[in-house]
Amino acid sequence: MRIVIHRGASQIGGNCVEVSTAKTRLILDIGLPLEDPAILLSRQSAKRRPPDLPPVPGLFAPGPKVDAVLLSHAHGDHTGLLPFLHEELPVYCTKGTSKMLMASSIFAGRSQPKRELPLVPGTITRIGDIFVTPLSVDHSAFDSVALLLEADGKRLLYSGDLRLHGRKPGMFAKLRKHLADKPLDVLLMEGTNIGRSNLGGCDSEAEVEYFLRKCVDDNPDSLLLASFSPQHIDRLVAFLKAVSWTGRTFVVDVYTAFVMHLLPGQCKIPAPTKQNGIRVYYNQSFESTWQRRRLRKVHDMFLKDRIELPEILHEPSRYLMVFRPSMLDHDFAGTLPHGTVCLYSYWPGYLRNPDFRYFLSALEKVQGHLTEVHTSGHIAPADLVKFVRSLNPRLVIPMHTTAPNQFKTHFSNTLVLKDREEHTI
C-alpha cells in the first residue's frame, strides 16, 4: 500500500491524499486551502481553473487513471475541487454529505459530483482491490466519516476531520470497537488545533448550548441575530433549543429551511413551520435571484410559513433571526433595530473580513454588540493524544495542520511527510 499526501501535509485544509496498490488508485478528499479565495467559487467562475490545483497524476496532471475519489465530508476545504474532476470519475460519499453538497450547489453555486456513489457508515465497499469502510465521526459537518482502507494485508485509517467534544461521544467508542480486532498500520491524523495556544481543551456543544440560552435570557428586549452555517447541524440544534427554551420564534432564511427540509430520516430536526415555532424569511438576495436560477420549487416550499421583515421589526424582541452580513444593506437598508445583538458562531478569523467589519460598525451605531458563541469543529490537543493512543497505530502521519512536528512531542512513531512525498507501508 502506497501513500502520497498531494496537499495538506503542513497546512489546514486543501486535503488531497492518494492511497494505492499495484492495481487501484484512490483519492481521499479534494479540497481547496482555506486561505484560497477560490474556495468560494461560484458555478460560473468555477469554469476557470484556480492556480493551485495539486498535480495529481491522472486527476489534474497526466498519468495513470484514478479509480475513485472518496469524500470524508462536505466542507469546501475537502470538496472544493469537485468542479475540476472528469465527470465520469466515480465519487463516493455518505447520504448526508450528498445532501449538503446538493444544498450548497443550489444556494452557493458549488458543485455536486456528476457520478456519485454511496458510502454507508460501517459497511464495506470494495473498489478494485481496496476494501473501504466509512466510520462515523463527530465533526461540524453533517454525516462526516473517517475512512478505513484495507489492502495488501495492511490497514490505514484516514481520520478526516473529527472531534470528541461534540454531541455524539458514542461515535468514538464505536469507531474504536470497530478497529480493535486487528492492528492499525497507519493513522493519517488531522491536527488542526495541535500547536495552538490555549487549546488544551474545547468547550463542549452542551456548554455552547447553555451559553446560547443565557445570551437569549440576558437580552430580552433585543432583536437577536444568529450568524452561523446552517450545515453545522449541532449549532442549528443549539439555536433551536435556545429559542424553544425562551419562547422566541426562530426566523430562518430559505437556505436554512431547505437544509432542515433535507434532514428528517437522518436526524431529529423539526420541520420549518409555524407550528414548530419557526418562520421563514425570504431575504432579498434570494428574492432577486430565484427566478433566474430556476428555483421555483424551492421558493414555493415554505410560502405558508413565510414572515416579512416589517412583522419582525414591529416587535423585534420576539425573534431570533438567521442573519448574513449582506442582509444589512439589502434587507435592513443599513440600519438595525436599537440594541440588536448578534450571536456569532463561526471561526473568529472571518470577523476580519470587510463585510463583517462593516456590520460591526452598524451594530455599534445602534448600541448593539456581537457575542461569540462557538467551539471548534476539530479535535482538541488533549483529545487528539487520547484518540491516537487508544487506536495504537504502528505509524502516525500528521496532516491538516500547520505544526506536524508537534506530533513528535506526543508520539515517537510519528512520520512527517512533505506534500507529494511517497511512503510505502
- Which structural class do the helices and strands define? alpha/beta
Main pleated sheet: 7 strands, mixed
DSSP strand tally: 20
Spatial order of the strands forming the largest sheet: 6-5-4-3-2-1-20
- Outline the low-pLDDT stretches: 37-49
Count of separate structural domains: 2
> What is the C-level CATH assignment of the largest domain?
Alpha Beta
CATH 2nd-level architecture of the largest domain: 4-Layer Sandwich
Radius of gyration: 22 Å
Mean pLDDT, all residues: 92
Brief rundown of the structure:
By secondary structure, the chain is of the alpha/beta class. Helix content is 26%, strand content 20%.
Topology:
Elements: E1 2-7, E2 16-20, E3 25-28, E4 68-70, H1 76-79, E5 91-93, H2 95-108, E6 116-118, E7 125-127, E8 130-136, E9 145-151, E10 154-158, H3 170-179, E11 186-190, H4 205-218, E12 224-227, H5 233-246, E13 249-253, H6 254-262, E14 278-281, H7 284-287, H8 296-301, E15 306-307, H9 309-314, E16 319-322, H10 327-330, E17 341-344, H11 354-365, E18 369-372, H12 381-391, E19 395-399, H13 407-410, E20 422-424
